[in-house]
Amino acid sequence: MLIPHPLLGLRDAQEFTCLGDAALLNRPDGLADPQALTDYVYLRDNPAGVHRELWFHEQGDRSWLVVTRNTLTHEILGAELARDVALRAKGAK
Amino acid sequence: MRLSGGEIDRSQTLRFTFDGRAYTGHPGDTLASALLANDVRLMGRSFKYHRPRGVFSAGSEEPNALVTLRGGARAEPNTRATAVELFEGLEARSQNAWPSLAFDALAVNDLMANFLTAGFYYKTFMWPRAFWERLYEPMIRKAAGLGRLSMAADPDAYDKGFLHCDLLVIGAGAAGLAAALTAARAGAQVILADEDARLGGRLLAESATLDGAPARDWVAGLEAEMASLPNLRLMRRTTVWGLFDHGVYGAVERVADHLPIPGAQVRQTLWRITARRAVLAAGATERHIPFRNNDRPGVMQAGALRAYANRFAVSPAQRVAIFTSQDDGHQTALDLIAKGVEIAAVIDSRAEARAMGEYRLIAGGQVCDSRGRLGLRAVQVRHGGGVEWLSCGALGVAGGWNPNLHLASHQRGRPRWDEAAQAFLPDTLPAGLAVAGAAAGQGETAAVMASGVAAALRALADLGLSGRAPALPITEARSLAGQSLWHVPGKGRAWVDFQNDVTVKDIKLAHQENMRPVEHLKRWTTLGMATDQGKTANVAALAVMAELTGQTIAATRTTIFRPPYTPVALSALGGGDSGAQFRPRRLTPSHAWAAAQGAVFVEVGQWMRAQWFPQPGETHWRHSVDREVLATRKGVGICDVTTLGKVDVQGADAAVFLDRLYANPMASLKVGMVRYGLMLREDGHAYDDGTCARLAEDHYVVTTTTAQAGPVYRHMEFARQCLWPELDVQLISTTEAWAQFAVAGPNARKLLERVVDGFDLSNAAFPFMACAQLTICGGLRARLFRISFSGELAYELAVPARFGAALMARLVAVGADLGATPYGTEALGVMRIEKGHVAGNELNGQTTAQMLGLGRMVSDKKDAIGAVMSRREGLVEEARVLVGLQPVNPGDPVVAGSHLFAQGAQQKTETDEGWITSACHSPHVGSSIGLGFLARGAERLGEVIVAANPLQGQQIALRVVPAHFVDPDGGRLRD
Amino acid sequence: MRYSAFRVLKEALTGHKGWRPLWRNPEPKPAYDYVIVGGGGHGLATAYYLARTFKQARIAVLEKGWLGSGNIGRNTTIIRSNYLLPGNEPFYEFSMKLWEGLEQAFNFNAMVSQRGILNLCHTDAQRDAYRRRGNAMLLAGADAELLDTEGVRAMYPFLNFDHARFPIKGGLLQRRAGTARHDGVAWGYARGADLAGVDLIQNCEVTGFRIENGRLRGVETSRGYIGAGKVGVAVAGSTSRVMAQAGMRLPIESHVLQAFVSEGLKPTIDGVITFGAGHFYVSQSDKGGLVFGGDIDGYNSYAQRGNLPVIEDVAEGGMALMPMIGRARLLRIWGGIMDMSMDGSPIIDRTPVAGLYLNAGWCYGGFKATPASGYAFAHLLATDTPHDTARAYRLDRFARGYVIDEKGMGAQPNLH
């Protein structure tokens, strides 16, 4: 697979480590609701289709990316820096 | 027998052996063609019935002529004789036959065939139960399998590489050549790969001319132009075997398989080709028509007969018959006649068939049986209401062509049946892939070439390049009309899958037993599961099943092909016998120094660490380790601890960041001080531990365990970039940048005083858990941490990595009178167990802060990763906690991995109270000691329990003690 | 019809006219007491035990494709009970005991072959961990032996002992472990269930659940509505998709695991061997192919196929461990979709919807569990109480903190 790194262009997926669902960006405040944290840690949509997921460019520039990928076809629809996505989400709150 | 002409070089003679007998051939021959030239038709035995088998094809689809090539450690089982280029001294042996190919004892299976039908083994061999492993299975295993491994390591070298191109053309036949030429002339970066040693594909197998000349002339002209184009890479002997995501193709180049030995070259290279576009021009495979006893040596694809005659100048026999349902079969007759081979008859199943030349035509006839134990002698033909035996030494069967669209289905695209083409054609294609030529169902050479050009032009357009259709040669028109005949009905066994011995009867039985879906059919009968993945079998089998169920072939559907297209050597995929080079070796800065001291090294992840430093007279590792421990506890020891992960954390929010990362508070840490830190995973379990040193308000250096250095750094970056991107904090891993040494023991301060540049090491100025940046040895910048893993007065001293070895040598040299002793990981481990520090065995990902006795460190005043989840019922109720364990009888061992039980308790899962995590011989205590997790351990100090190690027959009485065997009050640390 | 050597003999002599279909192709009935969703190994085994052991009737298995098309049709066939944790080991040992009498019970030779599994260790810490595990196995009534280097050499002299990057220091051996013919297991259970009256309905995809007032009434399928007293879902790989139709989110991700088989070779490797310093395990099938595999690809996938890096990684592991396989050739690669659960252990439990039961989360270890999984799920369906050995496989263990994490990797499915 090839990952379209937003800064570095197409990179071999071997350079990356995959973590999983990008919902992991949305960590609830740990002091608030334990149930929300349980759902955050353990439950996944796990869609058969478009999936937003976190990849770490471990053998590269060490940025975390949010890659949008189809889990049925492995087609990649886009990638952006996770940091940008997270900041945007925080700004929206 | 050898014919005239062909693409072989008669000026040279190559000697080779088959089953020990010497033969000769010529360059340009394959092993199969050379054997045929020497009138060898019998080349193998089938898998199940051990039926005599000869060559069936002239290509990589060969199901029958499998041999073991070469000898010794280079022996290569199951090699297709049809795809082996002949070389001087080639040695091949038949396989799956005993005592000899001609007289195979297991051919008795053929007599018992009626008992050995599809799936028979599922219905018997069940009684008595114990006989399966003892009798039935060993018997089956011995009989099964094909070739034999040498059992010696592969002696050859292999390579791997990456290639990138605009267009990958797979197959260098008419379509592939046209496509590659079109794209290369347009300036695209093109790779043209073909499994054959020669360009041309089927063009070399045909008598048809191009521009009025033999096709090889046109190919040669093209080859010359292609060689001059720098943007075209010709890859002969290269099989593109797999299609993966995003235009990545796996290919194997057989660099030296055509040579007696590779010499200085690698044998094969695995290429990962990233192609923006690709054209699959892999041609087509001719299918046969099952009839009774259609598997004798001499029965082969008609197109293969033609290839042998035209390209290799051989025929398996002087007198040959053709069985066809296609006009194409007649072409074989014409080509053979032109080469002086006698045609017994062309048997065409179509009543309306017309002869195309001077030969006997039996129109509306069918071959329904054959004779010849070790090779075809005659075929029985049914026509006009009667039967007739025709003597012949070979039979060419022409049943139409199956497009080679295997790669097109590697992403699980299921081909669809095309009624007009009478073939499966690709349906949805993987992104970037186009199919051209015979692989796309084209037949006529002109159409094949045109489709190659068209595919290339489309690819060029996609790539934003403009191309022009090249002038194509004038081709001869040939009729390819035909009518599918799927099998000849009748009694007896008609083979569909030659290698695995699947017959039409087996398919009928599968139908009768309701194993009708194609996947059931395949699995019940083993159809298509041989080394050819059913290339010559599957479509016929589906057609037979369709006939039985009354469904169409389209509705019956097909199984899909899996990678690889043809089998790939494991050495090519795995890079050969990598041995000690299997993974990189990371060396510590003092490695060379330690090696010079005679250190014994041990693998710690990818690192090699000094395990101990044997001294003269020490005959057992324990001598060395005990000495190192005692020398450290009495004087001073030095250990390279560079492998511990180090992460530099800087920024205005560094303190806030670390506060959220560690379970215990870090923001409150004073500048110039160090704190032990425990990280939890978000699920509340202990993740990793280390130290946090605050060098400045906005600057920390944290350490991780050796094993978790990578994952913890990744985790920290996750927290920084994904969870709290608003924080002003930067991270960098500095594990390799700093060499770090533990200097431990009562003389540690005295030793360090000799290297620091006027730095005040007094307890008042630099107390326990202090840290500082300083210079040593006259200006070398360094970092000093007063931390201890051994329980002694101890420091860790870090210098830029390139000075690590020198520092190690200096410390040992200047500390000689203080007893300075280098120690390895064993002594390190012993001292940490004696002190009760946890390490990997305790931090195994299944334990909690509470179990480690660190529960109170988890702050409930802040939101830190894992804190909330660590308070779940299941984690809080976990009763096992870390304790020290000491044998009641001091001579008894303490063995890690033993389970702990109350005295007198019945030992079973339900009464299990814990386990021993770490154990060692403690020279300090004078006995074995251990650490372990014991239920309610804190309340059981002094109790005698049992350590059960039934695996090794041990039951040891242990006393539960605090997990501090040295200096429980920590006085030594603080002195 | 009973299968036996005598029967094979008789049929051979009478033209094989008497062989009956392995199972019927029934039309779905309007309603059943039990509907099992998923005609893979676990679903078929569940139906078999429900009918045969728990004496229930009016049972259907709904399969969207062909019987056995789930992961039982694409795995590396290993059976073993070499687990560490008390939540797992008794369950897998129960499964092993069921394997040991399975073929005689369902009258089908599934080629259960106890030729042993050897897990190699390469460091002292790994050996300590194997000792702990081996002892846990013995304490649960399973068998285990700890071998030193020489013990390993005596069994498998062709392993790389002389120039290894990570030397072999020993291994944990379970002699009762081994392999079974995966399709045979599916067919044996299917035939046994069919003979006990279970309707096995192929090409019948569940497209929705009919739930009224929190209680399940039946399932919508591609072949119409089917009423059901209780529905058991056993659709590993597709669990999230199917259960989303009941409004549930699960602690599961779908991942692809590739598996490999070589060309047929004369017997070389007797039992199962796993490499402890790389991702590689191998056995040799009765047909002669080396059957091997390694790690999952590591990204979420429903594609049933993987990529080249893992193929190379597995081959590198194989070459490092046993360089004599280098001139054998890889014949076929395939991929299966794994229900990777959040702690690496399965779920057999009721769900918040009354009448809806779940069997899921088998990661890449579902094949060996097939008998016990079917038995325990049937037990739960028939009695509404968990089977003794499957009590830990609760759905609420994640929220409550009773995870069963054999590898100690935490809530990251692609590390289990």
Question: How does this model look, in words?
Answer:
The complex is a heterotrimer of chains A (93), B (975) and C (416). Chain A has a single domain, classed as Folate-binding fold. In chain A, strand 1 and strand 2 (9-12) form a beta hairpin. Chain A is globular, with a radius of gyration of 14 Å. Chain A is an alpha+beta fold and 93 residues long. Chain A contains two helices and six strands, in the order βββαβββα. Chain B contains 22 helices and 51 strands. The mean pLDDT of chain B is 96. Helix content of chain C is 28%, strand content 26%. Chain C is α/β, with parallel strands linked by helices and 416 residues long. Chain C has two domains: 18-77 and 182-251 and 343-415, FAD/NAD(P)-binding domain; 252-341, D-Amino Acid Oxidase, subunit A, domain 2 (D-Amino Acid Oxidase, Chain A, domain 2, 2-Layer Sandwich), CATH 3.30.9. The mean pLDDT of chain C is 97. In chain C, the strands form three sheets. In chain C, strands 1, 2, 8, 9, 10, 11, 17 and 18 form an eight-stranded mixed beta sheet that branches. An eight-stranded mixed beta sheet of chain C has the order 5-6-4-13-14-15-12-16. In chain C, strands 3-7 form a two-stranded antiparallel ribbon. At the B-C interface, strand 6, helix 3, helix 10, strand 31 and helix 13 of B face helix 1, helix 3, helix 4, helix 6 and strand 12 of C.
Q: What's this, in brief?
A:
The complex is a heterotrimer of chains A (about 90), B (about 1000) and C (about 425). With about 90 residues, chain A is α+β, with helices and mostly antiparallel strands. Chain A has helices spanning about 35-40, 80-90, and strands at about 1-5, 10, 15-20, 50-55, 65-70, 75-80.
